[in-house]
Each structure stands twice: as C-alpha cells, then as structure tokens.
Amino acid sequence: MNIECASEGILFAAGEPVKCAKLASVLEVSIEEVSEAAKRLAESYDSGTRGLKIIEIDEGYQLCSRPEYYAYIQDILGEQRRQALSNAAMEALAIIAYKQPVTKGQVEFIRGVNSDGAVNRLAERGLVEECGRLDAPGRPILFRTTQNFLRCFGLRTPDELPAIDFSKIGMEYEQYQIEEVEEAEEA
Question: How distant, in Å, are the alpha carbons of 67, 72, 95, 141 from that of 55?
Fold first, then answer.
C-alpha cells in the first residue's frame, strides 16, 4: 500500500481535516509514517504549479484549494463572497481566540458592551463553537475557536497566534484578570 496515495484519497474524500491518528489507524501504520507521508505529499503539491495543497491543521491534515485560485472557484460555484466581519465580531473573535475557552460574559466584560450578536455571528460562520459550560452559577456556555477559524487564518493550532502585549490593552483587561484570580481564590 502506498501511504501517500491512500492519504491523498482519504483527504480528498473527507473534504475536512482528518486527524493524523485517525489516518494512522485506518491505514494500519504509525503516526510517524503518516506524518512523513503527508509531508512528502505536501512537498509534491508545493513543488509544482498545482491548484491544491495539503495543510496541517489541529493535529491533522486537509486537502484544499490554493488561495490564489479562490476567485475562479467562487465564479464556478456561483457563491457570493462573504461579507467581512464587523469590528465588533473581530474584537469578540480575538478575545475568544486568545482567552479560550471563554464565556460571552467574559467577552462582554473585556469589550465593555453586549456581545451576543457578535458571538452568535461567529458561531453561524463556524469560527467559534460551544465547548462546554463553566462550573459557576448559571453554568454559562464556554466558547472556543474551530478548525474553520484555524483554516481561515492559516494556523495549525491556536498556539500559533501572534503574541500580544496585554499591557497595551488597558485597565479593563488588568481589572478582569484581577477579578478572575479573586474569583478562583474564593472557590
């Protein structure tokens, strides 16, 4: 069996990221063999002038089209371009990405305004998702970023987000951090 060809076929058929461990299990090979095969496959896509590429995302791989051909793909599929995210949605997304998992209340505290609409739009677009509930009164929903978020921003994991100097954000964030520590100490 050719691991590269089998992986390519699986990634094509899946249409979404497939965990490396799942590929290894299905192909009955080691995770290291799958990783090496995926790297070789990605290099072969990158070495030529191909319309596809292999991306690593969230401990797995996905076969996707190259961004430079996005306009042509949109023309063929007849889809309208999605509207850009509003400033409110971008602020909420940044908070969720850097603080995840986080509740809407925490997002609102940092932003200083109601964030229900922004968080709901992010969830509708598949950029954030529910990931449990906080063990606190009312059991608020926790949110985190999705694989779609990673794909849209060209990241493999949330750890690849650029570093932020939180001291430049202002007193609201520092106050939030202090209150969060005090709440944890009281629990």
Answer: 12, 20, 25, 30
